[in-house]
Amino acid sequence: MDMNTKDEVSVPRVSKLAEHIIGSEIIKLAAEVNEKIKQGEQVYNLTIGDFNPKVFPIPSRLTQYIQEAYADDQTNYPAADGMLELRQAVSNLLSKRGDLYYATDEMVITGGARPAIYAIFKAIVDPGDAVIFPVPSWNNNHYTYLNNARPILIETSPENNFMPRADEIAPYLPEASLLALCSPLNPTGTVFTKEDLEQICDLVLAENKKREEKGEKPLYVMYDQIYWPLTHGTIEHYNPVSLRPEMREYTLFVDGISKSLAATGVRVGWTMGPKSVINKIKSILTHVGAWAPKAEQLATAKYLNELEEYDRYLAHIKSEIHARLVGFYDGIQALKTAGHRVDAIAPEAAIYLTVQFALHGLKTESGKVLETTRDVTKYILDEAKVAIVPFYAFGSSDDSTWYRLSVGTCKLEDVEGVISNLRVALEKLQA
């Protein structure tokens, strides 16, 4: 028999995990948008949770310190747990601005937040373990899959700003190893209230008291707070350990400079938590090598030690972000008042606005019925030239009418153009 005729379809070529993995829906959508832009179309790309450095440059002093570090040949391996200078600076920042107190041996520096999240999953979650996370939320579904874990999705509601409540989580806690939370939340830009987070913490503490009596593995909380400096107006950020000090034993934080300093490409993040778990995370990362570059670590340490400069930059970037979010929010509300089937949740934090396009069932000028969320998304992109991310990309149901609008790449003058284009596109639709 000719071996070349063998049915190759039936022969596995990669692992089962790789065979069935789903790439980032957000990156896929952004690629489609960028292709349209390459073809000459003028598209308002509000998809990626990133910053346009021409609009939101990193702090000039941080740039200077990075350049100086490279000029000083700081290009070899950093310390496995991160440069001591940076861990000291992070510890100081957290104590002075974040109401958190972690020693340098209770944290690990990582190449942005993603390696920290991956390592936390690997350190806590065994194959088959249950992971609880709300939807919509960023990438928890994918990290759960990568760890052969069992997802428990908590469907959240716009009535609670898409933040999970204690009563929604409570039934599933006894079977879980990890509770993955994020505040401010990506994709919604909303935050936990003090009361909601306190109630969740109390449930975790009660569950772990039972487990301790039985000699079982604790339930841990991964608390992604990468956007915490970017709260707007009177909104306050809360964390489990400050609210309930007993949570320190069970909480693993995800943090970094990617968002607060518009430094997504600098790749400096960190995780902190119980020393025993942090040591395991450090060991895992030694085999991955997902460290922040040494020069960037030293530069970030130098910058974070200048807290007055840090505060000035943060005040500036928050003002710029807030102006865009409010502009879009007011514009969407004006469209709603005009009778269009749209809505938005008032911005609270981060670089995102939660918007609704409840356009299912409406007809386009050509007579096409917008039957699915994908139809609606395509219509907004093709007709209004506005690219936003549907919540199904964050684990919500395929028929969700809610979207993430990101302002990190948006010029302030673009706000009026986006709203104008949306108005024209919406006026063309018929019931």
Walk me through what this model shows.
This protein is α/β, with parallel strands linked by helices and 431 residues long. It has 2 domains: 3-55 and 312-427, Alpha-Beta Complex (Aspartate Aminotransferase, domain 1), CATH 3.90.1150.10; 60-307, Aspartate Aminotransferase, domain 2, CATH 3.40.640.10. The protein is 41% helix and 13% strand. It is built from 14 helices and 13 strands. It has helices at 16-20, 25-38, 60-71, 84-97, 113-124, 140-146, 166-169, 194-214, 240-243, 275-288, 294-304, 307-337, 373-384, 414-427; strands spanning 44-45, 107-110, 130-135, 150-155, 176-182, 220-224, 251-256, 269-272, 342-344, 352-357, 386-387, 389-390, 402-406. The strands form 3 sheets. The chain has a 7-stranded mixed beta sheet with strand order 2-8-7-6-5-3-4, with helices on one face. It has a 4-stranded antiparallel beta sheet with strand order 9-10-13-12, with helices on one face. The chain has a two-stranded parallel ribbon with strand order 1-11. Strand 9 and strand 10 form a beta hairpin. Helix 4 (84-97) runs parallel beside helix 11 and helix 5 (113-124) crosses helix 10. The longest helix is centred in the C-terminal third of the chain and has 31 residues, at 307-337. It is globular and about 60 Å long. The termini are far apart. Residues 1-7 have low confidence and may be disordered.
